[in-house]
Amino acid sequence: MLLKQELAAAQSQISTLDVRGRSREDFLRLRAMIKLAAGDTEGALKDVNDAVALNPKNPNALQLNGDVLAKMGRREEAAGITRRFLPLIPSTARRSLRWDRCRANSATIREAEKYFQKLAAAYPHLYVPHLSLGDLYTSRRDFAKAESEYRKAHEFAPTNSKVVAGATNAAIEAHQYPLAAQWLDRATHEMQQDPQVLREKNAI
After folding, report:
1. Whether 13 contacts 128, CB under 8 Å
2. Residues 34, 112 contacting (CB under 8 angstroms)
3. How far apart are CA 168 and CA 103, in angstroms?
4. pTM for the complete prediction?
5. Measured in whole angstroms, how far is the alpha carbon of residue 106 from the centre of its chain?
6. How many helices (DSSP H) and strands (DSSP E) are in the chain?
7. Phi, psi at 64, each rounded to 5°
8. 14-40 pLDDT, tens per residue?
9. 23 phi and psi, to 5 degrees?
């Protein structure tokens, strides 16, 4: 259940991003991994195809491409992709390619966390990575880290209702009701009409 919550949080937040430039290949690969772990094979295939198009010799993207095709039952195509990427990686690394699904999903969450941390470092005044990390930490029930990230997100986007709703939800989950009330007090009249904010307000 916890892993599903983390995947849902990662999928929700990364869907709001559209990274361009030199980081786009890694971004597409990460988004494809999250979509695959969440069961969106069609979306994962589109993203990984775009990543491979940017760098046809990246073994990580090719491996993921094969994984997605295999998941879709397109095993002959997956085998063809595998034959392409195996010569590109050291033989000692090939033994680590067979993960069970839970381990792979956990690795996806860790990579998503690292990605959002790097995004926050690269764009110091962007609220999205902090909101994303807040949601991920809430799903892990690491409420202290979640509160810290929501505060940073609110600093950069004080009128964003998703930030207030996420932070209020985290405080409620942690049974810190005075803190939840403080977050709701930060919402403007317009923000308080947002369905997500109203939902959290009614939960107190």
Report:
1. yes
2. yes
3. 31
4. 0.58
5. 12
6. 13, 0
7. -65, -40
8. 666 666 766 788 788 888 888 887 788
9. -85, -5
